[in-house]
Design goal:
Length: 204
């Protein structure tokens, strides 16, 4: 009998890594546009013009793949029940030395909030990116607002991503295994996502 249970399908994992790769490509190619302090990052792409070109290519890839990933998980990340509220009240147990056990489904509330933020950020970055792409085609005030919103979402997305990577690795050992290999250990699933585990195993 296997000690593992499938958490993500191959399609879901490939989609996740496309979103991840395009996101970090956008960060590295766009950070030099955000501030002159980071112009050195243009060297990764052979100069500023190449970085802008790659940024424009990675943008639509990120937008489409991120939007598809949200639609694929919309039902699971858009609903919050009393168990989720209990998780929020106790901050997921991260701020307490006492052990906490929550009746959590496939995603905990923190993961849901992250996914919803990325969905909103994807929409805002995509729309504002269009205005910034061809600034002479729109009124100046629209372009200026777009630049401000694009920058704010850029910073916010990096902050959320750093937290996401930490919680998926050091913060919760065993979590990233599901996205790397598709399967997670059953004891990990029972501990972190007991309701989802019971649903997958027929209530066992």
């Amino acid at each position: 009998m296997s000690n593992y249970i499938e958490r993500f399908s191959t399609r879901q994992r490939v989609l996740h890594w496309i979103v991840t790769a395009s996101f970090f490509t956008l960060v590295l190619s766009g950070v030099g546009l955000f501030s002159r302090l980071f112009n050195g990052y243009f060297n990764f792409f052979g100069g500023g013009q190449n970085a802008i070109l790659i940024h424009k290519i990675a943008g639509p890839i990120f937008f489409l793949s991120s939007a598809y990933m949200y639609l694929d998980h919309r039902a699971e990340i858009s609903s919050f029940d009393s168990n989720d509220m209990e998780w929020f009240r106790k901050a997921g147990g991260y701020l307490s030395r006492e052990p906490h056990h929550f009746h959590i489904g496939r995603y905990n509330p923190g993961q849901k909030m992250f996914a919803l933020f990325i969905a909103v950020a994807t929409l805002v970055l995509g729309i504002t990116g269009l205005f910034i792409w061809v600034p002479t085609a729109f009124p100046r005030w629209i372009v200026q607002i777009s630049l401000m919103l694009h920058g704010l979402m850029f910073v916010g997305s990096i902050m959320f991503m750093v937290l996401h990577v930490y919680l998926a690795t050091i913060g919760n050992p065993g979590t990233v295994q599901g996205m790397l290999y598709g399967d997670v250990r059953k004891d990990w699933a029972r501990h972190h996502h007991p309701r989802w585990y019971r649903e997958r195993t027929g209530g066992k």
